[in-house]
Amino acid sequence: MYIFKAAVIGAGAMGAGIAQVISFSGLPVVLKDVDQAFLDKGMATIRKIYQVRVDKGKMSAGDLDAKMSLITPALDYAEFSDVDIVIEAIPEKMSLKKKVFADLDGVCPEGTIFASNTSALSITEMGSATRRPHKMIGMHFFNPANVMKLVEIIRGEGTDEETVADLVSFTESLRKIPVVVKECPGFLVNRLLMPYLNEATLCLQEGAATALEIDAGMRDYGWPMGPFTLMDFLGLDVCADVGAYLNSQYGDRMKGAEMFERLVKLGRLGEKSGAGFYGYGGETDEPVKKLVAELSAGKKTVFTPERLMYPMLNEAARCVAEGIADTKDIDMAMIAGSGMTYHGDRLGPLALADKLGLDVIVGGLEELEKLYGPRFHPCDKLYELVKEGRLGEKTKAGFLEYV
Q1: Which of 142, 225, 321, 327 could make a disulfide contact with 229, Cβ separation 3.0–4.6 Å?
Q2: Annotated catalytic sites, by residue?
Q3: Average pLDDT, stretch 121-131?
Q4: Arithmetic mean of pLDDT, 287-291
Q5: DSSP-derived secondary structure letter, 148
Q6: What domains are defined for the chain?
Q7: Going along 120-241, which residue ranges are E strands?
């Protein structure tokens, strides 16, 4: 199915960014919100993105006006009678999302694809609120949507292959990289990223190192930014919510650091609130240091890059075992979605595990388990590959094959 017209529900940062990406591709798009102020702010955000391109000489002022004319702001569903796809980008509350899709079911054509930009919630459950679960699918953009290339495409239990194929084609038409993912809590990138971010936060709250030291250590390891800089950018409330959801679904190995909840209660949500792990503008990180002093009393732990990385590699191995995505797609998704590198090389978690040696990873996880508990226990897939002698690059076979 060719998509001639799209709609986006929610004019916040993500919704506005998605609408801009669609308009940039040349398609008309309706941007809907329930609040005129939010709608005005969303349209202003889109204009600002385009103005940056004008200022850099990448487009003319006339081009800017032409792209903006493709976007129709709306407070109701009057413009939805002929849309081919609707992308929902509202807050991560299942009840709200189900209500929106139930409403859309009554105003959109039968063939309209319903897509959710959720970062973790069940696509199948959303589809149950409609009469078209076969047309319900996840389309998870990464922030900022106008910059990040990755889009996770998530099949619900009822999603048909035609819908998946249509969304892959649509994503490619937006000049994005689609990665098709089997539905699971957190999908792919967030499922892999949260153990890494959580372990960094545990290191901080245990007094193993400062946020600056941990960020510097992970930049030296190869990441484009440290975990605390990244979390402040993403929003600590978002990290806390995603972490709590993953904990509810996967159990104690995803149990979130106490510091997330404490900082959110202090209103330290990251860059957007002027304070997170770091202070911005006139704010400082003194409240964070006091919190660390309180939470770390009597603890003696150590920060190493491996303590952060090995849980991610372990979770990636679980995703392989569960068939969440193709092996190469897992690596591509982490590179495109998080900027993951290793000492300057673009390596995803599985290629990195192969490079380090799967026997080394298993041994390292077992040592960390002795020190910090069962969240580090190596998964069965890692043990299986080591037993088979598939240790990675050094044996020419691991998660990947080497000539």
Answers
A1: 225
A2: 140
A3: 95
A4: 94
A5: -
A6: 6-182 (3.40.50.720), 189-295 (1.10.1040.50), 305-395 (1.10.1040.10)
A7: 136-141, 150-155, 177-182
